[in-house]
Fold this protein.
Amino acid sequence: MDPSMVVLEFVNVTKSYGKVIALRNASLSLPRGVLAGLLGPNGAGKTTTLKLAAGLLRRDSGFIQVLGADPWANPVEVKSRIGLLHERPLYPSGVGVRELLRFLSKLRGYGEEEVLRVARLVGLEDYLDRRVNHLSRGYLQRLGLAQALIGDPELLLLDEPTANLDPLARREILSLISTLKRDLGVTIVVSSHIVPELQEVCDYAVFISQGTVVAQGTLAELGRAFLVESKYRIESPRPRELASKLVREDFVLGVELGDGWVTVRIRSGSSDDLLRFLENLAPRGLVAKVEHVSSDLGDLYAKTVGSSS
Amino acid sequence: MRRLLGLQASVRRIYAYTAYIHDRLAKGFAAASVVVSLAHSMAVVTGLPSFATDPSSALLPLLMMTSLIYYISIVYIAYSMAQELGEGPAALYLSHPLGRVEYLLSWFAAGLLTTSILYLASIVAPVLVMDPALVSSVDMAVLATLVFEGLVTGAFVFLVALLTRRRGATFFAGLVYILVVPLALSIVAAIVAAAVPRQTLVETLVKTVFMLLYPCKYYAIERPTNAMATSMPSALLSLVLLGSCLVYAKRKLEV
């Protein structure tokens, strides 16, 4: 990977709390522009990873670089370029939403306009004059996102952003995260132990178990490496003909037909079969472009984290 | 140039956070200021005749009483910092561009600088109102011993707050420091003095500790000729303690 494209890098990082080792020689590397899922069971070391990246914790050993700087040694430099949503943000009691956002904006050198901008971005503009302790869990999470977005950070670290939310609020927050990635082009790391909900939003994954990074990569890379169910989108001038050929193959689980494209879902470990099959069809002008859409995160989780624990 | 800009930005962040702490603790600050100001105003009005002839004797007993509110205010601010560190909001603030040392300096500014200024202003303001000429008769050395005692108290409780991150422990340590230790030292000194007529090593030791930790109370009891000189070790001690807090914050403050 081009070093200038790496926004976050851990090399053999160890962090312990007393006798408990939270991270053990963890190494990971995140390219710019991805929406990465940091996945692992409770207590795997996800929060520690994010706090180390934000310079809130000091590593015992190893090397950490975030946007080209050491977050513990240069906390202000790093924190002015990142945004962090804590798992359970504890706000001071009785503080107003506007007052809190105004103060945090001031720390980054921004004024009232920034408060309004981030409030609008997360749909909090009607709640600015409320006290923080009068907000519902869903709106508290929006406030958490709003404060993390102050100053247009290049890297967003979101620790369990959907924890303790009802299904509707959960969906809203996930859709908000997708929109942020799409519209602002910001690199996002979302930690979660609820794997299926990240399936729709992530294009990169880091699996962590018992303080060790067990696998990482784009979903396509991981899908190929761990032989899991995957989804591909194939552009074709004759999609109907292509679909009819695909459905006859054993490795195909399902085909969806669109205008100029076909989406095909294939069995675990069949990526190479599909690519070979499409290669054979290419000379006949049936295949214009092949793109990996997703790999089943649940499957990946079971094969990586499941096998390591 | 870059360093200067960095320093400027750092001062701006410390100012922003100090102002935020003030906003959060405004009610407490206001209540303490009102009580102390009223007490000092009453004292100046009722003790005006003796104040004009011997201001330090007239004010000293009252200062000993009101300084308690001043020291308790400092303890309360350290308690608030411990609460913030222990319960989570500190992690939220430190996730933004606020350095660990800047964070602590903001609390020092709010806890030591502001309370000292408010307290001194509450003494000087009523005197100024009565007769500006009287200000020159206020013994600045006595006020200095008061502030140094506040600084040592503050440095001690901030260190406790930083290390324990527990508001209860901080408040308890602060109250013990303000109320119990001086009383215990006085009792020990009295017992030693009564038991042995000559000055002993123990008595000297107790007095030295008292002078170091409580320069104002020491001044009130011993009346040394040079109050500033006897306060200097306390000033040094407070610098060492505050420096330890800053080094700890820079190297070890995790949230």
Remarks:
- The mean pLDDT of chain B is 86.
- Chain B touches chain A through 27 residues (CB under 8 Å).
- The longest helix of chain B spans residues 55-87.
